[in-house]
Amino acid sequence: MGSFSGKTVFITGASRGIGKAIGLRLARDGANIVVAAKTAQPHPKLPGTVYTAATEMDNAGGAGLAVVMDVRFEEQVRAAVERAVEHFGGIDVVINNASAISLTDTEHTSMKRFDLMQAVNTRGTYLTTATCVPWLEGASNPHVLNLAPPLNLDPKWFKNHVAYTMAKYGMSMCVLGHAAEYRDRGIAVNALWPRTAIATKAIELIGGPAMRAQCRSVDIMADAAFAILSRDAKSCTGNFFIDDDVLREEGIDDLSGYAIDPTQNLLQDFFIDE
């Protein structure tokens, strides 16, 4: 077993995609993974539930706990954290992965959709972190990792989807503020974002096989997250990490294995300048 053996990681939106991939990477190192997501029943187009994901954590070598939770509701988040602590005895790492997206312009973004993105992305991240802080303080190397972009105020990242950018940057501002707020308490707060689009089922639904071929696999985000969370919390905080930069810092220069199709040009992700 590795350095995460017996440590408890609370991941929002971990029933599929990047959140699940990070959980599996940590589970292979012996971690306890709290799969905190709202998917209790199979989605007609997106595979996986909290229960199947938790089983995958078990099979990977860790211990999975399925917790049905909608990050928009305070009582559900508090109950999920209480369940995690009751089951595993504490929380060492929090990963704010749950996110809602709508790449619509202002006139075509309903207030219902606006409120959803703010509630999941910004408010959900803030709430989950705040709820877990008392337990993180008791951990030996406590980390909070938000799946959030660097704060890039170039208007081009706002003009086509103001509402989404505001909501996603809310997660980034949580990193900026919480890293400073909790630095003296020894809790690291960092952001991780992909340089390229990541091949999730959601990407396939949006752009089909052609778009998927221009992506990297979820493994690059999982390996980058593992590297960040392995670092000393007291000296590694307040950073806006990009996945491939993290891996290069770890001495991994050949990233071709992460490409879905190495013959294709990679599709750059949002909020990243060339």
Describe the structure.
By secondary structure, this protein is α/β, with parallel strands linked by helices. It has helices at 17-27, 50-60, 74-88, 111-136, 162-182, 201-212, 219-229, 243-249; strands at residues 8-12, 32-37, 63-68, 93-96, 143-146, 188-193, 240-242. It has a seven-stranded parallel sheet with strand order 3-2-1-4-5-6-7, with helices on both faces. α4 links the parallel β4 and β5. The model has no long low-confidence stretch (mean pLDDT 96).
Shape summary: globular
The residue ranges in which pLDDT falls below 50 over 5 or more consecutive positions are none
Compute the average pLDDT. Answer: 96
Range of strand content: 5-15%
Count of helix runs: 8
Specify the structural class: alpha/beta
Q: Radius of gyration from the CA trace? A: 17 Å
Main beta sheet, described?
Answer: 7 strands, parallel
Beta-strand segment tally = 7
Indicate the percent of residues in helices: 40-55%
What is the CA–CA distance across the termini? 39 Å
Q: Write down the secondary-structure element order.
A: EHEHEHEHEHEHHEH
Strand order, main sheet: write it out. Answer: 3-2-1-4-5-6-7
